[in-house]
Design goal:
By secondary structure, the chain is of the alpha+beta class. 26% of the residues lie in helices and 20% in strands. A 4-stranded antiparallel β-sheet has the order 3-2-1-4, with no helix packed on it.
């Protein structure tokens, strides 16, 4: 399983469970639909989870993407692998991903201090 909790700073907002074959998904919302909830509405699908993960990656057309992937030891811009490395942390928001078995908090992963 590819299990993770979507966090907003130190507040868990959704638990996501994806089967090993990435064909089945379950999303447990821990906060109501809002700006903090990336899975607002009723669409619970692998495509929705993939879209969320993809939104936490560098864009495919970026000129220096090959160099970035090389530094991350990745051959492709794979959202499943990229988010395992970066925890989905972005510069412009406080949403991030804590994977099953991790004991991290916002202060451990944030870019800006």
């Amino acid at each position: 399983m590819y299990n993770f909790t979507v966090m907003c700073e130190n507040i868990p907002v959704a638990k996501v469970f994806v089967s090993d074959d990435r064909k089945e998904v379950k999303i447990e919302k821990l906060v109501a639909d809002s700006i903090r909830q990336p899975f607002g509405g009723n669409d619970v699908s692998v495509e929705r989870v993939y879209g969320f993960l993809k939104s936490r990656c560098y864009e495919d057309g970026r000129a220096d993407l090959e160099e970035i992937l090389l530094q991350a030891h990745l051959e492709t811009n794979d959202p499943w692998k990229w988010n395992k490395i970066t925890h989905g942390v972005m510069w412009e928001d406080q949403i991030w991903i804590r994977f099953e078995g991790e004991d991290l908090c916002w202060e451990d992963v944030r870019w800006r201090k």
